[in-house]
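Bug report (template v2)

What were you trying to do?
Predict the complex of my protein with pyridoxal-5'-phosphate.

What happened?
Run completed; filing so the output is reviewed.

Input:
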Amino acid sequence: MNETSPNGSGQTTAERLANVKADLAGIRDTQGNRIGDVTLIAISKTQPPEAIEPALAAGHRDFGENRIQEAQSKWPVLKQEYPDICLHLVGQLQTNKVRDALRLFDVIHTVDRPKLAAAIAREAEKTDRAPECFVQVNTGEEEQKGGVLPQGVDAFVTACRDEYGLPVIGLMCIPPLNEDPALHFALLKKIAARNGLDGLSMGMSSDFMLAAEMGATHLRVGTAIFGPRMPR
Ligand SMILES: *Cc1c(COP(=O)(O)O)cnc(C)c1O
């Protein structure tokens, strides 16, 4: 098993994972209280099963992927070996992939339009197994990015709850690359609060400490755990 990173830093995945967890254990929120339970999702996209195994062996169980087909090629086998894995979908979801997604994923972070919410609700009813859902918010109002625009979130969350009966547990955002993520985390938190939502899926390798300090409940961390991604 090749456990060392391809960038020659010499750190193994297990070491990087332990470092991230140690960093998180040390931080406090703006009131000086220790940060409570935050779910660290190891984003394993592009990583082969051999690269994921060390994290599993270290006891980690929350993982995230952004493509259905890639997830199908890796996780059914790993889930057999480790039945308590919790798998998070963090990439855009097409309605024609909803059935496949719900077979594999426990949490969907990218619910962002009525058609998708309806498809998830329909499939959940059929299989009697509803995934936990985050509504993705396009806080930077970027054209190419998925997510509901900030001004549309309240109505969409209400529809998800009342029309579709989806278990919405929070909001998710991916801040624009060249902007201060703190502004986007603050906006997400504000919108969540006024909708009575506790979950905040925010923070990646470059800003997960900031996100945790600002109240994230779910961090999505890839390269800081697995090292640089190989091209697909
Ligand atoms: C890839 C990805 C991440 C992790 O990115 P890193 O910078 O490697 O931590 C987090 N969230 C989403 C939606 C992603 O696609």
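What did the reviewer find?
Confidence is low (pLDDT under 50) at residues 1-5. The two ends are 20 Å apart (CA to CA).
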